[in-house]
Design brief:
- InterPro entries: EspC (IPR022536).
- It comes from Cryptosporangium phraense.
- This is ESX-1 secretion-associated protein.
- It holds the Pfam family T7SS_ESX_EspC.
- The chain has a domain of 75 residues.
- The protein contains two helices and no strands.
- Helix 1 runs antiparallel to helix 2.
- The two termini are 15 Å apart.
Length: 119
């Protein structure tokens, strides 16, 4: 890979055509590091989903007069479990997409470097 500027995280910046205002750089290592952070958040959200599945409101907790309250709460609980699942899935997909983008930057940068004459 062509060497670019170093980043604070120790990675190399790729895709830097120059130092003009239109230039940009991406550190694939930083992108992958960010993807790992998103994986951690996805794992936490999935933990919340698993916890929500284990909690069940029993009728006895509300007494005879309010025994039907858990029936009212069931749709809310199922909605929360579904929302946690969807959020964890979306976060995992985002982390995967970031890793794919980092790979794409590295491949494109190497392809461009291979086209450059030595010297």
């Amino acid at each position: 890979m062509r060497s670019g500027r170093a980043t604070a995280g120790g990675g190399r910046v790729v895709g830097v055509p120059g130092d003009g205002e239109d230039a940009f750089g991406v550190s694939p290592a930083d992108v992958v590091r960010h993807a790992r952070s998103i994986d951690d958040v996805a794992h936490g959200v999935d933990g919340a989903r698993r916890a929500a599945l284990t909690v069940e409101l029993g009728r006895a907790a509300y007494g005879i007069l309010c025994a039907e309250l858990p029936t009212l709460f069931d749709p809310l609980q199922h909605g929360a479990v579904d929302a946690f699942r969807d959020a964890a899935d979306a976060l995992s997909r985002t982390a995967d997409d970031l890793r794919n983008a980092a790979d794409g930057y590295q491949v494109a940068d190497q392809s461009s470097a291979d086209l450059m004459p030595d010297g």
